[in-house]
Design brief:
The structure is a single chain. The chain is mostly helical. The chain has helices at about 1-30, 30-40, 45-50, 55-75, 80-95, 100-110, 115-145, 155-175, 180-200. It has one domain (about 55-200): Tetracycline Repressor, domain 2 (Orthogonal Bundle). It has 9 helices and no strands. Helix 4 (about 55-75) runs antiparallel to helix 5 (about 80-95) and helix 7 packs across helix 8 (about 155-175). The N and C termini lie far apart (about 65 Å).
Length: about 200
């Protein structure tokens, strides 16, 4: 059991250091030897745990997707009215978007998506599309209950994702914002959610 726990800690340490290296150097220029040098352990241990650099990125993406997805799943269980529920969920989601791990993932799929299409497409299929499906389920449920007026839940989920998170993702991968800006970003997130729900035209 102790050996197993040490192995698990070593794997987590590799992932934590990989986040640092990918954010500093990008996917192409990051070397596994750099990660091992900082994390300790051996290159053979890293290969046994992840296979190769692409496998290491997959593990990193899976961890980020799991953390981000939990907030969307909690939204589906929320008893709060849509305005409050969406604001709270979105504020938790932007906290994950501004985490070093998520920034590393987004930098890989945006800055290096052309040269790494397999990683880019895997992240979209497993990280973005499932979140949009959960949002669509939420919008469909709230529309059926009469708490939202939405004709196309799938389109609404796409609009919500891009309005609330799209600009933030671009800013974070560009280095303009990070977790130190979280309070300001969460305030803007609440504003974006209200704009999504209320629209910009005056009510008749």
């Amino acid at each position: 059991m102790e050996l197993q726990r040490r192995g698990e800690r070593r794997v987590e340490r590799f992932l934590d250091v990989a986040i640092e290296v990918f954010n500093e150097k990008g996917y192409q220029d990051a070397r596994l030897a750099d990660i091992v040098k900082r994390a300790g352990g051996s290159l053979s241990t890293l290969y046994r745990a992840f296979g190769d650099k692409e496998g290491l990125v997959h593990a990193l993406m899976e961890r980020s997707i799991r953390d981000f997805g939990k907030e969307v799943e909690d939204l589906l269980d929320s008893p709060l009215p849509p305005g409050q529920a969406l604001e709270e969920a979105a504020c938790h989601m932007v906290e994950e978007i501004l985490s070093p791990a998520r920034i590393a993932c987004h930098r890989i799929v945006t800055a290096e998506g052309i040269s790494q299409p397999a990683l880019r497409d895997w992240f979209r299929a497993h990280g973005i599309q499932p979140m949009e499906r959960l949002l669509s389920q939420y919008f469909a449920r709230e529309a059926r209950a009469g708490r939202l007026r939405i004709e196309d839940p799938d389109m609404a989920a796409d609009h919500f994702y891009m309005l609330v998170f799209g600009g933030l993702i671009i800013q974070s991968v560009s280095g303009w914002v990070d977790a130190t800006h979280l309070p300001r970003i969460q305030a803007r997130t609440r504003s974006a959610v209200r704009l999504f729900l209320q629209g910009a035209l005056p009510r008749s």
